[in-house]
What we know:
This protein is α/β, with parallel strands linked by helices.
Amino acid sequence: xxxxxxxxxxxAQLIVEEAPxxxxxxxxxxxxTHGVRTATAWKRLCRRAEALGxxxxxxxxxxxxxxxxxxxxxxxxxxxxxxxxxxxxLCNDFRHPVFAAKELATLDVLSGGRxxxxxxxxxxPKDYETTGLTMDERGVRxxxxxxxxxxxxxxxTGERVTFDGxxxxxxxxxxxxxxVQRPHPPLLIGGAGPRMLRLAGREADIVGVAPSLxxxxxxxxxxxxxxxxxxxxxxxxxxxxxGDRYEQIEINVVAFPAQVVDDRRARAEELAxxxxxxxxxxxxxxxxxxxxxxxxxxxxxHQRERWDISYxxxxxxxxxxxxxxxxxxxxx
Length: 332
């Protein structure tokens, strides 16, 4: 039986850690989807992504999204054979972890063990404003997320769970169904700041590193650090929090924009002009992927060597254009 009471850090110690994974991470590619509205278009997109060698399809979770992620991903799994399906990311404040665990475990069962479980603390004010939900200050949302992750992991064990946290309570419930992937589907946590990165380092199987605001000119002030400096600091934060389990972790980024262009420098200058940044910093960023196919291949190989980034998500609108990159690197 699983029993926990008190602060999250105490509860986390009762969770069985995942088995180590291979330290050398091959490249994986995902498409992120937004704006698909019909069953025909959705099924066609998922089949095409699988055929082109993409590893997974990932969906966000916002109140105004055309499709809801869990049922849409169940359909994606039904019409494909190997494509992994995942959330990038579920908003923790939208669901009690008991019901989130049940939905996610059901999706893992129905997909034959192809789920990637991504969850976040919630960040978009509009989601809260339009639904009447209270958007607590960030520290509270992250604390609640940490408790929810611990409770959800416990529910995935199939044992009877009693969890008495500050924000989350579960009283003597056996989680059903049990997921196919053991001890649970791979957990993805993304973030840019130290607090979320530390949580991800402690708990996640996949860490999504988001752009740091310290690299942006804000309120008339210049950036506090370069993009490479920020990435070095962010990965170091994950490493410190993960300790010996760092080699088990997969590092993910979302590349937006992502596109094939003839003149990489000219495109960098266009992107830099939009937000007052520096073209060299745009070209150094793993959060954008553009250039010739060979330039993008070189960029991705450099990013993996320096920052261990091996899991790259791109918008679904460019899945055809980036297929040659995926063809060269996927699985390598």
